[in-house]
Amino acid sequence: MKLDTRKLTRAAAIAAIYVASCLALAPISYGSIQVRVAEAMTLLPMIWPEAVPGLAIGALIANLLGPVGAVDVIFGTIATIIAALVTLKYKWKTTGYAAPIVLNGIIVGGYLPFVYGMPEVTLWGFNLTVEASMLAVAAGEAVAVLLLGIPLLNLLKKVGIERK
Amino acid sequence: MKMSSLAIGQYIPGSSPLHKMDPRSKILAMATVVTCLFLIKSGWGYLAMAAMLLAGILVSKIGLKFIIKSMRSLLVIMAFTFLLHVFMTEGTVIFKLGPLTATYEGMRQGALMVIRLVLLIIATSLVTLTTSPLTLTDGLEKLLKPLSAIGFPAHELAMMMTIALRFIPTLVEETDKIMKAQMARGADFSSGNLIKRAKAMLPVLIPLFVSAFRRADELALAMEARCYRGGKGRTRLRNLAFTLNDLLILPIVAASITVAVLA
Q1: Nearest CA to CA, how far is A92 from chain B (Å)?
Q2: Is the separation of the CB atoms in A44 and A1 below 8 Å?
Q3: Neighbours of B243 (CB within 10 A)
Q4: Could you count the other beta carbons within 10 Å of the beta carbon of residue B178?
């Protein structure tokens, strides 16, 4: 993707909106049981390719300001980049919509118990701590993407700022 | 909701050696300390790291209350982790609570894990509390610069980050304004469950996008009018330079690696 100045500033604007909405709703934006309203924006690469770096930087800054610190910054940002790239590649397809939910669930949900130092609780061969954390993150992500992300995408298209 | 009073980041200005250190040194030192914290196995190792981080807090002249403040949001998860260890580890039984048995080993392991989380937060907070987000961005750009040889857009990403940091306070204020405008039209942001409240943010996000994109397009125009052409030939008002202060990271890095290897 070639970045002209306008795409660069738009990506920065997307990053800023991401962080601003995380800060406005801080208590529910961090941790295992999180609903990041900002994650509704993970579908934006479908209409703007420059949203990929925008989301990456938004997640980077938001995590930098968050309580978990360095680990969240590195792995949380990587999860966001991978999910955004998959969404970009599979525009308007189920895979594209599911990518942020599944990938964030697995990556973020997977490392959070490790960072928190939770013990492994196994029951019938399942690692309960890790799996519960993955499900919790994915559920929060699903709420943001399905309930908020899809209407957001449709409304942005209706307003008509996507192609200008 | 009073959002306009919200400061961006946790940066507390100061003139301590830690404040004056080059951001690159701080990022590298933090990366080493965090990695070592995950490698340490014994209580003595954590004690040594705690002593070093405490020294860092004292040198930075940042009040303990700011450090503690950044931990408050994780209190619940810390308590949960501790209890999970106490009741889920097998070993010498201390007491029984219904079907649950608390063990000595669990208590020890739980305490160590909570201490590790606390130290992780201190290590990262020490960097974000003593470095302004803009300086941190400059440091990241310089550290990632070698990667531009393989096509990694280090300059562009750093520029986006700088612009985003400049936009955030404006947009937070804008969000506040839009919320008030929608409330005047009958919008309700404070009642209902989590899902209902999240959905109520839609009529805020759309105008926010429209206004942020207008600002972004204007900025792009202004940048091009001033002949912005990417990172090539860019000069800076303040150049990053290593000073004697940066030698401080040598003992930090050496000590943490020693502790990680020994303890």
Answers
A1: 20
A2: no
A3: 11
A4: 20
**Tokens 């990241």 found at:** B140
Q: Return the residue of B nearest to A52 by Cα.
A: B157
- Residues A136-154 pLDDT 10s: 889 888 988 988 899 999 8
In this complex, the residue of B161, B209, B216 whose CB is nearest that of residue A57 is B161
Cβ contact B121–A115 (<8 Å): no
- Residue B27's φ and ψ, nearest 5 degrees, are -60, -45
Question: According to the 3-state scheme, what is the secondary structure of B79-94?
Answer: HHHHHHHHHHCCCCEE
Q: What is the CA radius of gyration of chain B?
A: 24
Question: Shortest Cα distance from A117 to chain B (angstroms)?
Answer: 5
Per-residue pLDDT tens over the stretch A96-118: 999 999 999 999 888 888 888 88
Residue B176 half-sphere exposure, CB side, CA atoms within 13 Å? 13
ipTM above 0.90, yes or no: no
Q: Hey, are the CB atoms on B88 and A121 less than 8 Å from each other?
A: yes
Chain B residues in contact with A156 (beta carbon < 8 A): 206, 209
